[in-house]
Amino acid sequence: MSVTDSPPYDPDTAAAGLWLLRDAHDQWLADNTEVIGERAGPQPEHVELRLHQHAASVLTWTRALDDLCDGDPEPLLTYRSVRPPMAPLLHGARYACNRSVHQLLTLTRVHRVMRFPLTPSMIFNTYGTFRWVPEQLLPLPGSERPSQASSRAEYVATMAGQEIGPTLQQLRDWFEQQLT
Q1: For residue 7, what pLDDT is reported?
Q2: Cα distance between residue 153 and residue 35, in whole Å
Q3: What is the pLDDT at residue 62?
Q4: Cα dihedral angle (12, 17, 19, 24), rounded to 10 degrees?
Q5: How confident is the model at residue 30 (pLDDT cuts 50, 70, 90)?
Q6: pLDDT above 70 as % of the chain
Q7: 137: containing domain
Q8: pLDDT at 128
Q9: What's the CA gap between 59 and 50, in Å, rounded?
C-alpha cells in the first residue's frame, strides 16, 4: 500500500492505530523486562520470537500511521511540517518493517552478556540486549528493489546494530506527541 492508497485521515482511525502501536510496544516492554538478565528457559528462542513479533508489530503500526497522517494534507498540515526531522527514523523503520516481512526472523539479533556473580548455569543462558540487524547482514544493495535504496540508507544510519528498545520508544513517543 502506498501513501496514496491509504484511507483518508480521520481521528478515530489514527487513535486506533496509535492504540495498536502502544499495545505492541507495551508487549515488547513486558517481554523484554521479563527476560533481560534472567536465565533463559529450555526454549529461549520462543522469547526471542515474541520480542521479534512485538518489534515487527510496532514497525507495522508506525508505517501505517505515517502513511495515514502523511497521505491527506488538509487536516494534517502540521504533521507534514513536523515530520522532516523524524523522517530518517521513519524511513529506517519502514525499511525494517519491509525486512521483517521479507526476511522474516533475520531483522533482530540477541546479544548475550555475562552477569556477575556468575554461576555455571548462567554463563550461556543469560540474555543481554536486543539489537537491529547490522548492515553486513542485510541483503546486498543490488539484490533489493531500487525503491528501497533510500530507506535502506536511513535504516543503516539510524538503526543498524543499535538496541531495539530506544528506537521503539522514540517512535511511540513521537506518534503520541503528534496524535494526542
Answers
A1: 72
A2: 31
A3: 96
A4: 170
A5: confident
A6: 72
A7: 3-179
A8: 63
A9: 14
Asked whether 102 and 145 are in contact (CB, 8 A), the reply is: no
Type of residue at 129: T
| pTM, rounded to two decimals | 0.79
Distance CA 160, CA 155 (A): 6
Q: For 120-132, how does the pLDDT look when each residue is reduced to its tens digit (9 = 90+)?
A: 444 444 456 788 8
Do 90 and 155 form a contact (C-beta atoms < 8 A)? no
Domain count for the chain, please give it: 1
Spell out the residues 6+ positions from residue 97 whose beta carbon is closer than 8 angstroms to its own. Answer: 56, 59, 60, 62, 63
Helix axes 44-70, 11-35, angle to 10 degrees: 160
Given a contact cutoff of 8 angstroms between Cβ atoms, the answer to whether 71 and 6 are in contact is: yes
Q: Which residues contact 100 (CB under 8 A, 6 or more apart)?
A: 52, 55, 56, 59, 60, 107
